[in-house]
Amino acid sequence: MVNIFNAAEKAFIKTKYKILFVASESAPFAQIGGLGGVIFSLSRALREIGQDARIMIPRYAGMDLEKFPLEMEYKELEVPTGGTPEFLICNVKKYERPDIPFTYFLENMEYYEKRANIYGYSDDSVRWALLSRGTLEFLRLSKWVPDVIVACDWHVGFLPNYLKTEYKEDPVLSKIATVFSIHNIFYQGMFDYRSVSEMDYDAGQAPIPSLFDPRLLKLNGMRRGVMYADVVNTVSPTYAQEILTAEFGEGLDALLRERRARVYGVLNGIDYRAFNPENDPYVPAHYNSRNIERREKNQIFLQKHFGLPQNKEAFVMSIVARLSEQKGIDLIMQIIEPLLANINFQLIVLGSGESEYLEFFKNIAEKHPKQIAVHPMFDTALRHLIYAGSDVVLVPSKFEPCGLTQMEAMRYGTIPIVRETGGLADTVEDFNPKEDTGTGFVFKKYDPWAFFTAVVRAREAFRYQQQWERLIKRAMARDFSWKNSAREYIHLFSVAREYHKEDLRL
């Protein structure tokens, strides 16, 4: 069953664990998407409540070694390849500072240090298999051995597989429990699993071949992580339930249903130090829930920055997202003209993505320059300014494992309009004007007119400013800090260790 922790289970667990997060990226060293930020923030939150949480990632060429000087932890680590050459030689370095989680770095000149990018190489299958096996080889020889390894997403899905097969008799490694963390089940491995032939299908039972064997390309890292980990976790309770269905399971729903007793969902948090309207360096007028009238100054500044008419009475909508099908951008495209014809608003779009979406927003902004503005790339400062100065944020996702935008926006008093899916369903309560409850506007069906209705509802509610201010205050009062999630993770680690002990007895 998907987890629903009771009050006792959610209570702080005093057991101290040693935890290692293994991932392809982690802030502040190397980060492309949300994965790196989540791992950094969660590790730091766990350390703040007494857990020994550490991180292991590759050491890429793009790292700033002047800003982050590394120390040698283990030199000339021999990592078995299963082929010829018999070993790849790696170093393990570390970075340890009070304000940043203890992080290990797997060095290898050919596969990491020569690579400027994190992803996108033809031999990525080798790079991720090396990270999985290199981590385990290092732990065999390390003075510090974790109680639990959290393998983050498909890139390190081989790690639980190696642990349960190649290292099942190892006196050190065999004691380590594993959690496989699914951040987005849509991405599973090195090939398009949705169109794979029967000959290439990876059932997960065959041994992992040599790092240099072409068959490695055909393995599904996501499937193997789900099959071999002691516990499977994803990033929200609702998404954990959704991936058990054919609609959201991306071909792994049957396997997940087989393992449903070990499938959990712990909601991600956001970094309250980085997202704080009281002291945000990117926001011209600081504020909190007691003086939200100061948001008007930010709205005027935002409008001026984007060349929109400066009007504190305007209904300012925003999109802060990767412009992709997953994010429901096609719904926005379908309703934008009807919205322009029926309600008064301004729209600010921030984000990069697929060319067809970028072109659409560019054209619509040129057609309506006094209502729509676009910044076609990610920008941290603008992201914060938009949260502080807009009235609503549009998040009509087709699916959303967790979603951070809606939580970040509510922290700043920007009201989310979301589809009821995944983490959006877990974090946004639909506004009820009669009861004066809720924190946003929610629609269920993935349909443009359901979305249109939600936007119109929000615009109508905006007319009643006193009630709207109470809505803002309720949204800002929600606690999405990592401290809550960290406590649930401690419980998850205890569950993983119990399952691991149970499996060892079999």
Written description of the protein model:
The chain is an alpha/beta fold and 506 residues long. The chain folds into two domains: 7-269 and 483-505, Rossmann fold, CATH 3.40.50; 292-480, Rossmann fold (3-Layer(aba) Sandwich). It has 17 helices and 15 strands. The chain has helices spanning 7-10, 34-48, 109-113, 124-141, 158-164, 221-228, 237-242, 253-258, 295-305, 329-342, 355-367, 380-389, 405-411, 422-427, 448-462, 465-477, 482-505; strands at residues 18-22, 52-58, 71-80, 87-97, 100-107, 148-152, 177-182, 231-234, 263-265, 316-320, 346-350, 372-375, 392-395, 415-419, 441-443. Strands 3-4-5-2-1-6-7-8-9 form a nine-stranded mixed beta sheet. A six-stranded parallel beta sheet has the order 12-11-10-13-14-15, sandwiched between helices. Strand 11, helix 11 (355-367) and strand 12 (372-375) form a beta-alpha-beta unit. The longest helix has 24 residues, at 482-505. It is globular. The model is unreliable at 1-12 (pLDDT under 50).
The strands making up the biggest β-sheet line up spatially as: 3-4-5-2-1-6-7-8-9
Oligomer: single chain
Q: Average the pLDDT over all residues and give the rounded result.
A: 94
Helix count, per DSSP? 17
The share of residues in helices is 25-40%
Q: Strand fraction band?
A: 15-25%
Low-confidence stretches: 1-12
What is the CATH class designation of the largest domain? Alpha Beta
Question: What kind of sheet is the major sheet?
Answer: 9 strands, mixed
Report the strand count: 15
Instruction: Assign the CATH topology of the largest domain.
Output: Rossmann fold
CATH superfamily (homologous) name of the largest domain: Glycogen Phosphorylase B
**Overall radius of gyration:** 24 Å
Structural class estimated from helices and strands: alpha/beta
Counting structural domains, the number is 2
Please tell me what the overall shape is: globular
**What is the correct CATH architecture of the largest domain?**
3-Layer(aba) Sandwich
Distance between the termini: 22 Å
